[in-house]
Structure formats: C-alpha cells, structure tokens
C-alpha cells in the first residue's frame, strides 16, 4: 500500500485513515459475528459421535473410517507419525483403532478436520501453516502436562490443538474484508486485532462443533486464565503449553530462561524435574509438529 489511497467516493485518504477504516469494518464484523465458522466435515463428525457411543466397537469404527478414503489415508498417516510414534508400523485401520484406542482416533479425526478445514486460508498459507504447527506442538505439550497431573489428557490435547483456531478464521475474514473494501492492508497493521479477538472466536468455533462447553471456555480464556472461574487450571495449562510450543516450534521466540521464570509454574505446581523433562521434549515435539504439515 502506498502513502495514500483513492477512496470509492473519489477522495484521497492517508494510509492511517485507510487502516482506520479497515480496522473499523474488521472489528464491526467480528463483534457482529459476521464471519464464517468452518463446518466440521461429515466424516469427522460421525467419528466423534461414534467414539462417544459406548456401544461402538473398534471394528465398527474402522469400517466407518474406511468408507471415507481420504479420512482413512490421513488416519493411517497420522497414526504412524512421530506424534504417536508406534513401535512397529500400523498398516490397517483395524490395527490403528485397536492399538491407539477410540480416544486417539477421535483426536486424529479432529486433527485432520482442523488441518483440512480450518487451517486453510488461500493467500495466507505460510501464516496459517505456522499457526497449525504451533497448535500441534501446544497439543503435545498440553497432553504431557495433563498426563503428569492425571488430568483429562484428551481435553488437554483438543484444547491445545484448537486454542488458536480463531486465528485462521480471522485471517479468512481479513481477506474477505480486504476484498469487500477493495483494499490491500498490511496484515501486521491489524495483527493486534487478531491477538485480542482470536480466543473468543476460537471458542465460538468449538461451540459450533458441539464439543464440550468446558473446552470452549478454556480456549476463550487461554490468554487470561485468571478470569476463567470454572476452568482456571485448564486455561493455565494451555497458557503454559502455548509458550512451551513457541519455544519448541515457533513462530514466536520464547527462551528457556523465560520458561524457567514462567508465571504459570507456581500455580500449576511444576517442579524443576518436570520442567526439565518438558524442556527436553523440545526436539521430539518440534519434529512431531513438522512431520504433520
Ligand atoms: Fe492464543
Ligand atoms: Fe498459541
């Protein structure tokens, strides 16, 4: 964008005025909820329902996934990835289901849905891929923190995976508003809007997918855990996992020193040996996130 732009009414406006006009429209759309929430693909939503049903057995679930060739391929790819690191290769869906269990299959179905439906914004591929990689790392770390506390590991994984899912939704809206106003605005000029609004938008996405309310609440508060009365522990865990994920896989630089002095260490009761173990997972988690891209 140059120093000035011609408006649709023919007048000339400064860059600052253009950005202000853009921000106003962008914020207006966010607060009115005028953005598109990606839908959970049919196959993923069937898997979610089936895994919630006590009567569903492994064979039925494998058959259901098999019917969707693309989902089946992705499930096998992810089941064999560094994230689950099977000791011997998983070659069939039946094997994937029986060795990983229903909960992991549900995680994988959501991971695929997220990767293929949410983290896809034409024109912003690099930014969105970076957030997806960060999200996998956050999911892996959250799971690790939860496991050591005997908290719900599945919830932790899903919250980590989806904590920043509001960002790609807002990137898409950013692209749409640019088109609508026929403006090209440097994304960095509105990045603060994404930073401040993505948690709420992510929570709306999770609600629209009919995931448990506690997940939406945790995501809504992941940058302000002190305000999350019902899910404070989970929100603190995600905030810590978020920074650990930046440390392992970017995109923001977080140092070991910063993590050792992290404000969540005390409330989460993270002892030194646990922190050492989490930090030592840096490379493994970075690799797991990288190989899923
Ligand atoms: Fe965030
Ligand atoms: Fe994050």
Can you describe this structure?
- The chain is an all-alpha fold.
- The protein folds into two domains: 38-110, no CATH class; 119-293, Hypothetical protein af1432, CATH 1.10.3210.
- The chain is 66% helix and 2% strand.
- The chain has 15 helices and two strands.
- A two-stranded antiparallel sheet has the order 1-2.
- Helix 3 crosses helix 5 (93-100), helix 7 packs antiparallel against helix 8 (153-162) and helix 7 crosses helix 12 (232-249).
- The protein is globular and about 65 Å long.
- The two termini are 32 Å apart.
- The model has no long low-confidence stretch (mean pLDDT 91).
- The structure holds fe (ii) ion (2 copies).
- Residues 134, 138, 163-164, 242 line the site of one fe (ii) ion.
Distance between the termini: 32 Å
The CATH architecture term of the largest domain is Orthogonal Bundle
Q: What is the mean pLDDT?
A: 91
Strand segment count: 2
Please state roughly what percent of the residues sit in beta strands, choosing from under 5%, 5-15%, 15-25%, 25-35%, 35-45% or over 45%: under 5%
- How many structurally independent domains? 2
Ligand inventory reads: fe (ii) ion
Element-by-element helix/strand order: EEHHHHHHHHHHHHHHH
Using the coordinates above, name the CATH class of the largest domain: Mainly Alpha
Helix/strand structural class: mainly alpha
The coarse silhouette is globular
CATH superfamily of the largest domain: Hypothetical protein af1432
Number of helices in the DSSP assignment: 15
Q: Rounded to an integer, what's the Rg over CA atoms? A: 20 Å
As residue ranges, the low-confidence spans are none
The percentage helix is 55-70%
Q: Looking across the biggest beta sheet, what order are the strands in? A: 1-2
CATH topology of the largest domain: the name is: Hypothetical protein af1432
